[in-house]
Amino acid sequence: MSNPIEKSKLTEEIIKELKILYDPEIPINIYDLGLIYEIKIDDDNNVYILMSLTAPNCPVAESLPADVNNAVENIDGVKSCQVEVTFDPPWDQSMISDAALLELGLL
User: Fold this and answer.
1) pLDDT single digits (tens) 11-27
2) Spatial distance between the Cα atoms of 13 and 7, rounded to a whole number of angstroms
């Protein structure tokens, strides 16, 4: 069973891995892009990630969720990962982090 401190460290590790994955159309990692809506970790370290894509017809609509799943499942301590893609709410530029906006020269 995970305690809150362990879950917090695992969440940090998950975010670190997600920041390695990039959307092919915008040169920002998927976490700072705002594509990750939710990360849940249960007491057995099963991870659930709710994410979106920049558009339903995104060229990586098939591969990006699988990349997220593989990246998270390869983290020490993660038992399993389930990735769900949603378009509710639809992603838009207001979801991009300030750091990413700065990197893009939009802030």
Assistant:
1) 999 999 999 999 887 88
2) 10
CA angle 46–50–56, rounded 5-degree value: 140
Q: How many residues does the chain have?
A: 107
CA–CA separation, 66 and 43 (whole Å) = 23
CATH 3.30.450.20 fits 4-91, yes or no: no
pLDDT in tens, 26-81: 889 999 999 999 999 999 999 999 999 988 888 888 899 999 999 999 999 999 99
The alpha carbon of residue 66 and the mean position of all alpha carbons in its chain are separated, in whole angstroms, by 11
Query: Beta partners for 84?
Result: 50
Q: Which strand (E) or helix (H) includes residue 38? A: strand 36-41
CB 30 within 8 A of CB 21: yes
Say what the pTM is: 0.90
Query: Letter for the amino acid at 8?
Result: S
User: What are the sequence ranges of the domains in the chain?
Assistant: 4-91
